[in-house]
UniProtKB/TrEMBL annotation:
PANTHER family: ALPHA-METHYLACYL-COA RACEMASE, SUCCINYL-COA--D-CITRAMALATE COA-TRANSFERASE. The lineage of its organism: Bacteria, Bacillati, Actinomycetota, Actinomycetes, Geodermatophilales. InterPro entries: CoA-transferase_III, CoA-Trfase_fam_III, CoA-Trfase_III_dom3_sf, CoA-Trfase_III_dom_1_sf. It comes from the Bacteria. GO terms for molecular function: catalytic activity. It comes from Blastococcus colisei. Pfam families: CoA_transf_3. This is Alpha-methylacyl-CoA racemase. SUPFAM superfamilies: CoA-transferase family III (CaiB/BaiF).
Length: 365
């Protein structure tokens, strides 16, 4: 089930953003066949691949891409596919005889999705990298964190998944619409540096308008403003405050018990932000996180508890929305976005090569 039911995807197994893109398509109903290398996946991160939730809802076939017979299996899969996803360094697929020219000649309507960190071209294209380096090069990492501390990488969410996997999925679906309209396939070059830069578009607009300083931790949305920050409570836990608009700020002051207090520093004067933050710091430190949440829950103060990953799965709103689901005893995020007519569903995680015989039979091999 799902809006992509009937769409066939071939995904070359990898790590991070490529499998995440395949997961999104599988969640939405696409038939995703993951090509695993014969033998166990190695390396510090590769060892996690066999149980990675990013592989949910897919089928898996194990092949040796150095074996000409198995390369023919790949070509047979491509002939019936709509989308191909690969995340190798530039030139690898071409050397295997599976590059865009080879496979678009075989299937002219194919969407050939390529996931890399640096892109297919440029001085760094052939070099290794990881999320932290990609977001560093785009300026996104340098803009994240406190002004007097080292930049703080937001795990690998910003680059790998936000700037990488989501943009590959968007590009693949756009190219798929084009292919179904014109019969012409194309190559989607999804580079994490490109996508991450696009995510900073609004900030660049603010820079150009002179309302953002090119320094982290001193601006409206990067914890520079005391009414858009995180505060420690009496129990050592934290609350997130995002009371940007006047009416939300008024609700914040009301919940804090300081509405009408004329001694509060002016929030509209950045020079007074340090003094205002000090007042807020003292106020929030007087009660526990849960006590404050009981005070602010259901109000327009734009205050939220900072849950841990496990705490988030037990939140009342999160549970009501069924943001998380459980499959085979594993709690995990559910399908997003939601569709009323043909809802997607979370599938199980296949072992490497689990469906090899089944898929070969479908191909008549």
């Amino acid at each position: 089930m799902g809006p992509l039911q009937g769409v066939r995807v071939v995904e070359f197994a990898g790590l991070g953003p490529g499998p995440f893109c395949g997961m999104l398509l599988a969640d939405l109903g696409a038939d995703v066949v993951r090509i695993d290398r014969r033998g166990a996946r190695g390396g510090m991160l590769g060892s996690l691949g066999a149980t990675s939730l990013l592989d949910r809802g897919k089928r898996s076939i194990a092949l040796d891409l150095k074996d000409p017979a198995d390369v023919e299996v790949v070509r047979a899969l491509v002939e019936r596919a709509d989308v191909l996803l690969e995340g190798f360094r530039p030139g690898v697929m071409e050397r295997l005889g599976l590059g865009p020219d080879d496979l678009l000649a075989l299937k002219p309507s194919l969407v050939y999705g390529r996931m890399t960190g640096w892109g297919q071209t440029g001085p760094l294209a052939s070099t290794a990298g990881h999320d932290i380096g990609y977001i560093a090069l785009t300026g996104a990492l340098g803009a994240t964190g406190r002004p007097d501390e080292r930049p703080a990488p937001p795990m690998n969410l910003l680059g790998d998944f936000g700037g990488g996997g989501v943009f590959l999925a968007l590009g693949a679906l756009a190219a798929l619409l084009h292919a179904r309209t014109t019969g012409e396939g194309q190559v989607v070059d999804a580079a994490i540096v490109d996508g991450t830069a696009v995510l900073t578009t609004m900030i660049h607009g603010m820079l150009d308008a002179g309302v953002w300083r090119d320094r982290r931790g001193v601006n409206l949305l990067d914890t520079g403003a005391p009414f858009y920050d995180v505060y420690r409570c009496a129990d050592g836990r934290f609350l997130a405050v995002g009371a940007l608009e006047e009416q939300f700020y008024a609700a914040l002051l009301d919940g804090l018990g300081v509405a009408g207090d004329e001694t509060l520093p002016d929030r509209n004067d950045p020079r007074q932000w340090p003094a205002l933050r000090e007042r807020f710091t003292d106020l929030f430190a007087a009660r526990t996180r849960d006590e404050w949440w009981a005070e602010f829950s259901g109000t327009d103060a734009c205050v939220a508890p900072v849950w841990s990953l496990l705490e988030a799965t037990r939140d009342e709103h999160i549970r009501e929305r069924r943001v998380f689901t459980e499959v085979d005893g594993v709690v995990q995020p559910d399908v997003a976005p939601r569709f009323s007519a043909t809802p997607g569903s979370v599938g199980t995680v296949p072992a490497p090569g689990q469906h090899s015989d089944e898929i070969r039979a479908e191909l008549g091999l």
